[in-house]
Queue: 2 jobs
Job 1
Amino acid sequence: MKPEIVKLLQDLNFTEYEAKAYLALLDKSPLSGYAVSLGSGVPRSKIYEVLGGLVDRGEVLISHEEPSLYTPLPPQELIRLKKRRAESSFEAAEAALEHYSFVSSNRENIWNITGADAILERAADAIERAQQRVLLEIWPEEAKLLEKDLHAAAKRGLDVLLVVYGELPDFEFAQVYPHDSSDEITREYGGRWIVVSADDREVVAGIVSLGADSRAAWTLHPGLVMPITEVIVHDLYIYELMQAHRETLEATFGPNLIELRKRYNAGPNGYSMAARLGLGG
């Protein structure tokens, strides 16, 4: 009996004993309770209680004879049953909880998120909640991880706009704006960052390229949502201006406006924002 399969069944809300009894019945059935105990390693003193629970949930069938015999629900039927029950539970929970909302104090707080996976999960949640538009500043690596969520938002009729630091093909469902000087900016930042603004009311922003050391903030605070959203909008303005007047602007401010970058930050000379903030060394 493979431990990994037992663990998978435990993830489906089987107890360890239930998983072992079910697998024993899959291996050979019908069986008496005593035979299931012998084949599964479940103690004889526990086997009828374990089988009774599986029968009550419809995951094992019992015959009406003496002694009673047991047979398992076929795996495909078991999975369909589990899915239906899970969907039903989610629907019931959604209905029960819909009258609850974020307490008003949430709008006044800034919540810390640690770890790249948790940051991307929070970003995906924000995208799923959006009803009008989603704005992002993002690198291709993270954009691809959020592609399914962004595509779903576009299919719901939302405007999906991405300012991307690098090349991002195959995102026809979104409006993609490549950011100039992507390589230089990546070096300046000391990593990849993400900024998500959902409906101009919710923001997730932080560094995502440091694995477990990645840090981001999530907030509904209007005093932060508004200026952070405007940062993305500002980069969209710059993109449009560069498309229309690149030659004139670069004649004044250098290729990709490098002279402006040098004037207002350290520019591509080894400055690392991540290091400055004590992230990732």
Job 2
Amino acid sequence: MKVITFILSLVLMAPAFADDENPAKELLLKMADAVHNRNFDASFVVVKGKSMEPYRWLHAKQGNTELEHLSLLNGAGLEMVRIDDQVTYFEPQSEPYSIDTDSIAGPIPEVLFKDVERLSQHYDFVLGGKGRIAGRAAQLVRIESKDEYKFNYWLWLDAESSLLLKSAYVNHAGEMLEQLQLTHISVTEEPAALLLEMLNRKFPTPLPAAAITKNEANTGSNNWQIGWLPEGFSLLKSDRHKLDLNNELTDYYLYSDGFVEISVFVQRPLPGRRPSGALSSGATTVYVHNSGSFDVSVVGNIPAMTAKAIAESVARPL
């Protein structure tokens, strides 16, 4: 009887222990620390269906200064440079510009390099199996959505350095929709020469990101009512502007749950009534809804049913 009582007490204590110590979350925190403090030179590809985008990613810590360089290697190219809390973007056919921010807006969700604890209300951190990625021993960590309205996100971390080796958006059937795969990584003692050269370059005066968000959020945010969003999403910014694609005036809203961003565009119907429907590329869904008096487009790394529900919930304020 005493043995049974002892075993029962252990079972009752187990959930509290598991809540206090989550090995999957600890690995994610170690990855964030490694990304900010290690010197590395990596190449990776982002695979969406039949398309593939190659990148080169360099990072270094020179004294107390953090240096990062991310470049898209195909097409006209795209270059992003970060020195501590300033990021400069060099885009084709436009003037370079700088922003006061501590993260590059690249293909890896920024929150993964920060405190992932903020995601714990709407996502679970689950330890998966071990494998081999890019010739290195890897540990799988799964970020699982607590509802069906968002995709899951899986990461394979280098067992030695804690750096990211592979990641994927995964639907609730376990299918990988979009993958990021490292093809090469070199962890070094000294920073790459390219990064050290950045210290001597002159960059544009940064635009305060907080000020931009504040101004945009106060423009056009009351023109429409978004009646439904998955739990955890809040408005980051909104504005009214003309789309480059068709020069049409649109009201724009950007929402985030800290991990996924959702863009909502509302505009007058275009000539020729278009049926409502969704298009997908990798994990990205574009859902267009024709309400009769206005069109709604929802774009984000979310399931089509989620985009459809958001689009159909848009209405004029009462």
